[in-house]
UniProtKB/TrEMBL annotation:
It holds the Pfam family MFS_1. This is MFS transporter. The chain crosses the membrane at residues 117-139, 183-202, 237-260, 272-292, 304-325, 331-352, 359-379, 391-410. One of its GO terms (cellular component) is plasma membrane. Keywords: Cell membrane, Membrane, Transmembrane, Transmembrane helix.
Amino acid sequence: MAGKQTGRHRRAHEARATYREVFAVGEFRALWTAQALSFIGDQLAQVALALLIYRHTGSPLLTALTYALTYLPPIVGGPVLSGLADLFPRRRVMVVCDAVRTVLTALMAFRGTPTWGLCLLVFLTVLLGTPFTAARAAILPDVLDGDRYVAGSAINNITHQVTQMLGFLVGTGVVLVVGEREALALNALTFALSGAILLAGLRPRPAPRDREHSSLGLLRGTRDGARLVFGDPTLRALTLFAWLAAFYIVPEGLAVPYAATFSGTATEDRAVAGLLMSAMPTGMVIGAFLFSRCVRPSDRIHSMGWMAMLACAPLVVAAMSPPLWAVVCLWALAGVGSAYQLAANAAFVATVPAGGRAVAFGLAQSGILAGQGLGILAAGAGTELLGPERVVALAGAAGLSAAIVLTLGWNRMRDTVARTLRGTEPEDELEDELAGEPEADRSSASTT
């Protein structure tokens, strides 16, 4: 009898939230709409920058360098600036960041802006994205609870990848029609609309922490956040899993020079580049949907290591110079594997204290972006010597090796993390507890 009750208790805890439930929350709709607008503008800007630099220079290194500027700024100030979302009201942080980024991206659209000025504006724009992302990540658990948070994270991830997929395909055509600078102007407009939606759609909340001296608070918060994340074995493992993105992002950064290996006209190269750029985001959309809707929360945790390996393993085949259709399929398969980030994100939220959520998220996110930027930059330099196929294969092999090592350590702690997400206790303790519980209490158990 106790075993049957335990099964009912576990199933109640592992009930999966629907997307309809998530979209019924008005504040989430505001966050999602603002995010979608920003992502669409960002994809237009990335396509415009990559095509502009490669068309003018023909250099894979300079193209990768420009692309890397969308990832590198967190190395400079990301961990510190992310603490703003713990010291100031998070809605205010997001709105101010959107307002400033509107101005910066509008300046990019001026034809008189030199290349070095364009790079500086890109750097500053992405740098401001760090506190914005930290604030949005920190406020989402306040808007959505339980498995609704996981479903909301999946929606955000799917939205990101869909906008990447469409942005790289449609964005290439838009840039060719309206021009690179005009596409950057559209990006400025999306930031302005995003800020207005957040201001109107989110209710004000107080700052999570009291602050006496903001600068000292930021530095102290950064130090405490690093101790929190890297001093806890679970948070450290989850952060390192997140940072694996530095390896499987390499194909996206090399899509333009990789497209040139299929020798065609300049127009054909642009079309192939858009197809390659959209392959991995397409796989990510499929993976995120299946992982969030068809896999139980605890099973996501148990399969996380295998999924991380799948995110890197298909890239190794690039060493064999497969045809275009095979490259697209392999990159899409790697995208499916990257859905493990949903499980890592949910476990991170369940483990980190609410008061340090923003700086912890900011540190993890800054590491992701910094690793991706350095990975793309190193891959661009390697492409000058080895060619894009070999560099993609090396990135996949290195990522696969790192994923295997992380999975071996993760398997020793994943059961504990899965119980935390379920809100349950070890099996023997749970059965003893249920034996003395009223039936009504068991069926209404709360979810983390």
